Amino acid sequence: MPTSPPRPDFPTGAHLMHSLGFELDPWQVDAIDGGHQRLLLNCCRQAGKSTAVAMLSLYEALLAGDRLVLLLSRSLRQSTELFRRVVEFHQRLGGCCLKRQTSHELQFTTRSRIISLPCQPDTIRGFANVQMLVIDEAARVPDDLYRTVRPMLAVSGGRLVCLSTPYGKRGFFYNAWAKGGPEWKRIEVPAKEISRITPAFLEEERRNLGESWFRQEYCCSFEALEGLVYPDFKRCVTALLPGPGTPGAAHSLPSPGTPGAAHSLPSPGTPGEGSGVRAELLRPQSSPNPHPNPSPGVPGEGPQGRPVGGIDFGFRNPFAAVWGVVDRDDILWLTGEHYCRHKPLSYHIKHLPRNVRWYADPAGAGEIDELRCAGFTISKGDNALRPGIAAVSARLEEGALRIVERKCPNLLAEAELYRYSTEAEDKKAEMPVDDNNHALAALRYLISQLDAGKLGRRNRKETGSSDQALKVEAAQKKWMSWRNEALWRPVF
């Protein structure tokens, strides 16, 4: 059903707010009267985003007839709270045009409606001709809901408004903010721009919440998620490579234009991207690998040691592989990754180094057999989740895992997203959310096999002589033994 044209004599939303005694910030005026078709409000806590959007929703319904405004949130309580503000504004404006009111719906004599709904993708279908779709606390709303409700705007050409405080580098709200197109109007409102929030209060919050959480709650920064499985994963990223033949020695990876200086991760496909690096997480369309069959450790060009790698098979989900070397000090250096969707195994074979001892997802028995036929040395990994997480965490804590900077961007991206579930049963079982864990699963298969039988060892940091003791023990072993890998050379 087509909507009625807007009333030309209707006052602006900002004028209505002023008539109620509100002094609006400039960004609130822009949000209410800017007419933005796609609007992202990235606001700190207590900035006034709900107040602005409540008036925007009421204004949209009253401006013309036959308009449907949907208020969605993560829970019924949250959507009801936003709806309550809409009702309050309507009553203070005299309750004009009201036909019927329930706890979750306002109906007007102009046939316009405002409806508040909880976050339930399975039951929210059926609404059509939506003129405005509001998603409250959008950073915490599941992507399934977002994908379910967007088609409601297809015929009406309606407006989409998403408001939230950041909640990690995840979900549609973050993707739209960081990677969305020019159709989005982005409004960022940090606490320092809100005169109602005093500097003394912000300093108190910084001390009590910690720097990362404070930046997310009050500085509009998308920080790491609460409940990350590997919260300290970035600590193992290094721009230092051990010099060939010199255990423990290192030299810097030069930055472009600045020899020896540290540098940030490059965009996929840019100069300096490591061999075998795929960009599925960082970019939807991955380009062909310019360096097929990269070597994990070329003499004189990085860490030297025993080449090893891990693989997590996938087609719709990413096929993920990480590889590197284990040096003589038992430090695992990761020097490359391959990360790609919707490609056959023959494609992946061309992008994996062959001189590597691989440990793979044990569920992929067929793929493992195919790789063996192609000449790869590969075994089944250990799929036990909790022991595998413990093994990876142990290496992180001991400093025995190092990732060469710029070589594994998708692995690092997953580590910022892989978190424990907030569901009651999953929390009790310490189960992570089964998502954003493909390169991490490949790493888990690798480390679980490397450290099999070693998970009960003491932390290296708790015993100053542990490294020396390991070296003495190794020296005491017979050199002329079939177990000495230095005597063996792969022939196929």
If you had to describe this structure to a student in words, what would you say it looks like?
There is one protein chain. This protein is an alpha/beta fold and 492 residues long. It is built from 15 helices and 17 strands. The protein has helices spanning 13-19, 26-33, 49-63, 76-92, 143-149, 171-179, 199-209, 211-218, 345-349, 365-373, 385-398, 409-415, 424-429, 438-450, 466-476; strands at 38-43, 68-72, 98-101, 105-108, 113-117, 132-136, 159-164, 185-189, 237-238, 240-241, 251-252, 306-312, 319-326, 332-340, 357-360, 377-380, 401-404. The protein starts with 12 loop residues before the first helix and ends in a 16-residue tail after the last helix. The relative contact order is 0.09.
